[in-house]
Amino acid sequence: MNEAMTGGKGSNTLPQFTGNITAKSRANFTHYHLIAASHAYQEALSIENKYNTETPPQKELNLYIAHFSACIMCSVAALESKINEHIVDNETEINSSRNRPLFKIYELREKAKKRDLTLSESLLSATNAFKKFNIIWHIKYGGPYLEDEISRNVKYLIEIRNALIHFTPEWNDAFTNHSNLDNVRNDLQFTESPFFPKDTFFIPHRCLSASCAEWSVGTSKNFLTTISMLCGCIRVY
């Protein structure tokens, strides 16, 4: 847990929540995305355990890659879903935040005006989950979220998701578009795929591991707890 979140050093200390709680019934997909991510991780792990370091038949290797990709995408989708829930629940507070001198808020508001949208609607249409969270945190607490291990992991997870979902075909001897992700990987707590040699590129080969999938689910769960604290209640997923 971020030291600042428990009242230690830093500027992420949360004020006491005093808002009213209203019971609602609506379709929220956060939980389903997280279930899908966890299931995909387990499927990828079962293939790793079955073949160990031996390369699986192509059909099972294809499933392994598919399960890993699904896990990464659903882990990020859970975060986006939860943040969007918070935006919908706090439209009034977000749209009345004109006194918050944050460039990104001003930039979003100007774009919203051009498209005849409110700030909350503009936030809902934004695509980066962590940037949306950071803007909402600033609106609520008057400053940006202090970077910590959880936020660094989330930003890296989003980068991996983006690299996979927007992947541009490259020749197998020139996978250089995502070398920056390989450089950061050594600071994270997961192992690489046992099915690809060490001299292959991290994206789109060595990152494909059950360990990375497990890390993505854990990262999503940790950040969902942080988002829930932003909402004024603590829920462990």
Describe it.
This protein has one domain (about 30-230). It has helices spanning about 30-50, 60-90, 90-95, 105-115, 120-125, 130-140, 150-165, 180-185, 200-205, 210-230. The protein is mainly alpha-helical and about 240 residues long.
- What structural class do you assign from the helix and strand content? mainly alpha
Number of strands: 0
Helix content: 55-70%
Taking Cα atoms only, what radius of gyration do you get, to the nearest Å? 20 Å
User: How does the major sheet shape up?
Assistant: none
Q: Work out the helix count.
A: 10
Output mean pLDDT. Answer: 76
| General form | elongated
Query: How many angstroms does the end-to-end distance come to?
Result: 15 Å
Poorly predicted runs are: 1-19, 233-237
Tally of distinct domains: 1
Strand content: under 5%
Order of helices and strands: HHHHHHHHHH
